[in-house]
Amino acid sequence: MKAEIICSGFGGQGVLTIGKFLAQAAMKEGKNVSWLPSYGPEMRGGTANVSVVISDEEIASPLVSKPNILVALNQPSLDKFGPETQKGGVILVNTDMTPNKLPREDVDIVNAPMSSIAIECGSTKVLNMVSIGLVIGKTKIVKFETIEQDLKEFLELKNPQLLSANMEALKRGMDFFKE
Amino acid sequence: MAQKVLMKGNEAVAEAAIRAGCRLYFAYPITPQSELIEYMAKMMPKVNGTFIQAESEVAAINMIYGASGCGRRAMTSSSSPGISLKQEGISYIAGAKLPAVIVNVQRGGPGLGDIQPSQGDYFQATKGGGHGDYRVIVLAPNSVQEFADMAADAFDLADKYRNPVMILADGLLGQMMEPVEFKIAKTDQEIEELNKQHYDWCMRPNVDGEERHHHEINSLELDPNVLEKHVLSLNETYKKIEQNETSHEEYNINEDNEIFCVAFGTASRIVKSAITELKKKGHNVGLIRPRTVWPFPSEAINRAITGKVRKILVFELNLGQMVEDVQLSVNGKVPVDFMGRVGGIVFTPDEVIKKIQESL
Amino acid sequence: MQVIAQRPKSLMKIPFTYCPGCLHGIAHRLIAEAMDELDICDKTMGVAPVGCSVFAYKFFDCDMAEAAHGRAPAVATGMRRARPDMCVFTYQGDGDLAAIGTAEIVHSANRGENITVFFVNNAIYGMTGGQMAPTTLPSMKTSTSPYGRDVNDIGYPIKASELLATLEAPYYIERVSLLSPQEIIKAKKSVLNALKYNKENRGFTFVEFISTCPTNWGIEPVKSREWARENMLKFFEIGCFRDRSKDHEGGEK
Ligand SMILES: Cc1ncc(C[n+]2csc(CCOP(=O)(O)OP(=O)(O)O)c2C)c(N)n1
Ligand code: SF4
Ligand SMILES: [Mg+2]
After folding, report:
1. Complex ipTM, two decimals?
2. d(Cα C77, Cα A56) in Å, to the nearest integer?
């Protein structure tokens, strides 16, 4: 098993966090992982992205140029990485911020109004948790319980009052496929 | 068993340095190594260590000169433009036979360049950098774990040979998070023992009961005959280092290789990916990865040139600075070819595969 | 129709790369307006620093050099000595001028180089993401002073204008603020003075701008100006620390 993930969006949408939670959970489940952000002034207002590799084998290159899982939170991200996604790969699209569709038949595209779901859960800030929920709901790449535990540990230290909105967002993402 | 944590290279090397007994750290902010200085700012006070954000890299390396001169484990870090500023100080540290650890999280150059990963400082790191006849031991990690492990190695080597040691990383290794497992932290008592190994030369108080000492930390010697002796003795040390400390990793090196690659640091990971891909297609390509780039693993490279080897391919994130060292190792036995990207661009496995396939 | 506000001629027609609410853009504009008013753009060269204003060499419509971090006054010295017929200015941040470039600024000022130095003090390293600057206020938290600036350990913020005013040579040194329209108008006067003296070959001139960094302070633009007023202006007093034109001629010309 080898997942090569790119999460991409505007700076501030929390894409680095999406990657970090996925990588950390996979690590705890005994997988090899790497997390590599784009960095530098381009992140100021521009797009930010992160490459995450999760693998049973040792990870050679941590750079993902052709993802098999793409999380595109805005139009520039879909335009940039959509065409590069591997045949048969999964693309999770935030339809709230991508007016133009990706004209591809050979990939599994999941269209979800992630920003709207986040707002329903209480804040645009939980957009990243909606995305994580969608990723694991679709790909089962890590267990819900592992993410849940990490999230609890993380927020109990930092911001316990945000826990319920984040948990709700995570579940809404997961359950998207049941709806 | 220690637990694995997910951490950036910049933070992991800082944590590992503290665990290895580093209690003095001086540096100036620069991208892409800022997480290192920020980690030290946060953690040093918690271990009663010293953190100073120096006014410049020149000042930081001279603070190291002073702290190392007192026999303490001291470290500085920067990225390429800042490392250039440190070169003067590194020359003085080498001349005065001081142990010191310097981390270079390389970025694209020359000049201000950019802030993306590069290996453009290979010449500077391995061939001197500052003035005079001296060598710096240069360790080249290729993962966050190794970046962290090399912190302890670097301090041990620096102490053992009283010589500066550089960890030559790059923006990718600094910014990337990977699982890392840390060694147990040295206790204050153990650190004290480490300091004591330098008592016969370092600056320290004259203690009652002991024979009085007068130690000088110095690189000046106006008598050419004496200076020559000093430089020759340094050279003896360098020979010992070459004999004892050269280190490399082999991947898929075997009797049937017709081609093998040489790459270090970040570049070696991409090459490894490419070789694994090619293996699936039935191609047998090897990789030698220098873990020390000075001393350089010449013998290992030479040894790997068995009867079938037709060509050696060098991959670097520069314009071929290591090629000369490979050619010296190969000594004309087979041709050496090269591919590199510069400007902070990291080649993809596909680019590397294409280059290797040209020779298959 | 009368045009009341337009892009100064001395600014290139490209958008600034600063964060929303950042005052670097205002400082640029004041300098460019003054260059227009004194009609010196064609005879001026500037030096950009390393910092958020690193791209200043793209923004001013005169010839510009990009210097290594902190070395702008030395580069400007070389430029001015090579072209004594031209006005030379540097534009520098606090890290650039008062940390890594302390030696260069002090000695250029001490030689009385005929250059103008524009110094933007935002109490932080903007470009590298919010580390402590030599002008970071006591107790102020930054990413490299996570427990607040401890003055007993790392010293007090450096008052660059006062420091340079201990030297004999400088001709003009003033600290101004960019925190409100009224203050910006005053700042403009100071920029004009500096460049006018520069044009008249009177010697070293220096203008310090009290500025903000909403992004790395983590305070939104309007509040960041209030914060600066309450905190920075108490420490960095506004005022003219040197004006030799008054010494010699008994008043401003
Ligand atoms: C030799 C060297 N060291 C460090 C850096 C990294 N660096 C770039 S800008 C900067 C600080 C800028 O802060 P300041 O001068 O206050 O300008 P601001 O961004 O706040 O306007 C640093 C440390 C560099 N480019 N060169
Ligand atoms: S980081 Fe600060 S100083 Fe730099 S452009 Fe943004 S607001 Fe201005
Ligand atoms: Mg500043």
Report:
1. 0.92
2. 60
